[in-house]
Specification:
Mean pLDDT: 93
Distance between the termini: 10 Å
CATH class of the largest domain: Alpha Beta
Helix content: 40-55%
Number of helices: 16
Low-confidence stretches: none
CATH architecture of the largest domain: 3-Layer(aba) Sandwich
Radius of gyration: 20 Å
Largest sheet: 7 strands, parallel
Length: 353
């Protein structure tokens, strides 16, 4: 079996690492990196730490507006797909790379398998929501992390090829947590004490591109009265610099960190503030309370379990959530047993018999 995998952003590197390890035991994988995330700290370090093979193709698309970036990916992916003639095209999540890979495969009549299918924020202003909906509706195999995703697809009339497999990011967390504990020196280098700091990530367009929203978030961080460790996305750094913001003295602004360092920061933080979907889940697996800086989340299971509070960007809601960041008693297993990658490979194998 020959699989062509399309990745482009750091969360996809984590997911693909888990599946590729199983897939390559018996099958051929062609790995295409679109270059959506191209900074060494956003890309290369993840390949090294996760043991991902070097991409067979790197499109080096880089930053651009959504339409330009996606269009450039379409142009560069098509000849690769025609040359390689894979049995399946495997895409992950909800980025422009996801949609581009799925669209090219669909036009060339190559079956599509979508990991993290069925997630919905029900906010069509999010580019990610459009990407995931369109990809789901042209995929032949849809790998869902939990029952809620299956329910979402059913409401849209998508029932064929739908499977609950669990979350491949959980596979990765289980596999790499011990390495993070042994190898990461991030707490020492930043002079941090476990459970005596907050961790923050902010990168979504709705939070970063609007100057007033970003200023409100940063001002709120400054009011928290605790150390806030803030690994800053290049997009966010650019926005802060352009607006001339000055950060509160309690905010430790650091460059993006690798996967192992990020896991260790998440596990040892008292509470996490984020607009990232992946970080919301990792917080849950580590038993770290999470405050989501969005008006909605596709990971509603973490909210229902009481470990995640969705507060948007309103100052008082953020402050209240951080002050009330206590741990629920129950911590149910929401996203499978850590064997999602094996299930995905088995379903891909059965899908071409």
């Amino acid at each position: 079996m020959k699989i062509l995998t399309v990745v482009g952003a750091r969360p996809q590197f984590v997911k693909a690492a888990a599946v590729s390890r199983i897939l390559r035991e018996k099958h051929t994988e062609i790995l295409v990196h679109t270059g959506q995330h191209y900074d060494e700290r956003m890309s290369d370090v993840f390949f090294r730490e996760l043991g991902i093979p070097e991409p067979d193709y790197n499109l080096e698309v880089g930053s651009a507006g959504h339409s330009v970036q996606t269009g450039e990916m379409l142009i560069r992916l098509e000849p690769i797909f025609e040359k390689e003639k894979p049995d399946w095209v495997l895409v992950y999540g909800d980025t422009n790379s996801t949609l581009a890979g799925a669209l090219v495969a669909s036009k060339l009549h190559i079956p599509i398998a979508h990991v993290e299918a069925g997630l919905r924020s029900f906010n069509r202003e999010m580019p990610e929501e459009i990407n995931r909906v369109l990809t789901d509706h042209i995929s032949q195999l849809l790998f869902c992390p939990a029952q809620k995703a299956v329910d979402n697809l059913k409401l849209e009339g998508v029932t064929s090829g739908v499977h609950i497999v669990g979350d491949v990011m959980y596979d990765a967390v289980l596999r790499h947590s011990e390495a993070a504990e042994k190898k990461s020196t991030i707490l020492k280098s930043l002079e941090l004490t476990s459970k005596q700091y907050l961790l923050a990530t902010v990168h979504r367009a709705s939070n970063v591109d609007d100057t007033n929203t970003l200023l409100n978030i940063l001002d709120t961080f400054a009011m928290l009265g605790e150390t806030v460790v803030f690994p800053i996305h290049p997009r966010t750094r650019k926005a802060i610099q352009a607006a001339g913001f000055s950060l509160g003295g309690n905010i430790k602004l650091i460059d993006p960190v690798g996967y192992l360092d990020m896991l260790w920061l998440e596990k040892n933080s008292r509470l996490i503030l984020t607009d990232s979907g992946g970080v919301q889940k990792e917080a849950y697996w580590f038993g770290t309370p999470c405050v989501t800086l969005r008006e909605e989340t596709e990971w509603v299971e973490t909210v229902d379990a009481g470990w995640n509070v969705v507060v948007g960007t309103e100052r008082e809601r953020i402050l209240t959530a951080v002050q009330n960041g206590t741990l629920p008693i129950a911590h149910p297993n929401l996203f499978g047993a850590g064997d999602a990658s094996q299930k995905i490979v088995q379903l891909l194998e059965s899908g071409i018999k």
